[in-house]
Amino acid sequence: MSKPVRVLFVCLGNICRSPMAEAVFRHLVREAGLEERFEIDSAGLGGWHVGEPPHPGTRAKLEEKGIDQTGLRARQVRREELGTWDYIIAMDEENVAGLRRLGAPPDRVRLLLEFAPETGMREVPDPWYTGDFDETWRLVEAGCRGLLNYLRQQEGI
Ligand code: 4NP
Q: What are the backbone dihedrals phi and psi of residue 41, each rounded to the nearest 5 degrees, phi first?
């Protein structure tokens, strides 16, 4: 079988949006029986919360939706790893700019909501500031579903 497709979700702190996306995407991949075909992780551009579990707002949402959150711990993205990911999925334009500054290959960096045009949004607003984890859930879930469909087509999975 071909080697797994490597997908990294990135936000600022790696405690609200990108760990939610990692957990939801893993869930969808597992549901589809495609665990062997993907390697999935998340990381933050900032290092303030390294080693912490997700924000209580993200934890509550994942719990409510019955999504496994085992092992989620914040970490900071490393310059050296950027070339190893096939898809680097950013939550907002600020993340994209930060990834570019770190030297991420531009063609591998995409916004999550590119894959969910039906939301009418381009960026996932940061719930660290908005407090609106319902919105985060709605956008992240739509983005992850769209991303999985896209990758299955793109990668012939
Ligand atoms: P996230 O949210 O990028 O979705 O994880 C944030 C979490 C923490 C901070 C900023 C955004 N912070 O400044 O500590």
A: -155, 175
CA of 132 from ligand 1 middle (Å) equals 13
> Which residues are designated catalytic?
11, 17, 126
pLDDT at res. 1: 64
Report d(CA 95, CA 104) in Å as an integer: 11
User: Beta-strand (E) ranges in 13-105?
Assistant: 38-44, 87-90
User: Would you state the structure tokens that stand for residue 49, as one six-digit string?
Assistant: 């919360």
Domain parsing of the chain, residue ranges: 5-83+94-154
Q: What's the pLDDT tens digit per position in 108-129? A: 999 999 999 999 999 999 999 9
pLDDT above 70 coverage of the chain, percent: 99
Report CA(154)–ligand 1 centroid distance (Å).
Answer: 31
Instruction: Please identify, by atom number, the ligand 1 atom nearest to the C-alpha of residue 124.
Output: 4
| Contact call for residues 111 and 123 (beta carbons, < 8 A) | yes
CATH topology of domain 5-83+94-154: Rossmann fold (3.40.50)
Would you tell me how many other CB atoms lie within 10 Å of the CB of residue 56? 11
Q: Is the pLDDT of residue 152 over 90?
A: yes
Predicted confidence (pLDDT) per residue in 46-55, tens digit: 999 999 999 9
